[in-house]
Amino acid sequence: MSECLHAAELPRPEPEPQSDTCLECLAVGSHPVQLRLCLVCGNVGCCDSSPYQHATQHFKNTDHEVMRSIEPGESWRWCYADGSIV
């Protein structure tokens, strides 16, 4: 893990998920793969293994840098700005 100033600036406690799946995938009739939670606002998006990569698109649209996996048994976080696990 690396030092990440973005992670230090995250709201505490972390935001509640806005949904239990990637709503953007549902809207276009796609199946989300591996869900990610935006740790700035609580948006739930699909990972880059999904056809539409909604979690990454959320970062590009909002500059919300840090997300975490919300898959069972996973707890890692990723900073898009730093390109590293934090």
Instruction: Give unreliable regions as ranges.
Output: none
Gross morphology is globular
Largest sheet at a glance? 5 strands, antiparallel
Total number of strands = 5
Beta content comes to: 15-25%
Helix content: 10-25%
What's the N-to-C terminus distance?
A: 5 Å
Strand order of the largest sheet: 2-1-3-4-5
Q: How large is the count of helical segments?
A: 3
Description:
Strands 2-1-3-4-5 form a five-stranded antiparallel sheet. It contains three helices and five strands. It is globular. Helix content is 22%, strand content 19%. The protein is α+β, with helices and mostly antiparallel strands.
Short description:
This protein is of the alpha+beta class and 86 residues long.
List the helices and strands and how they pair.
Blueprint: H1 5-8, H2 23-28, E1 35-38, E2 44-46, H3 54-62, E3 66-69, E4 77-79, E5 84-85
Antiparallel strand pairs: 1-2, 1-3, 3-4, 4-5
Key words describing this protein structure:
86 residues; alpha+beta; 3 helices; 5 strands; 19% strand; globular
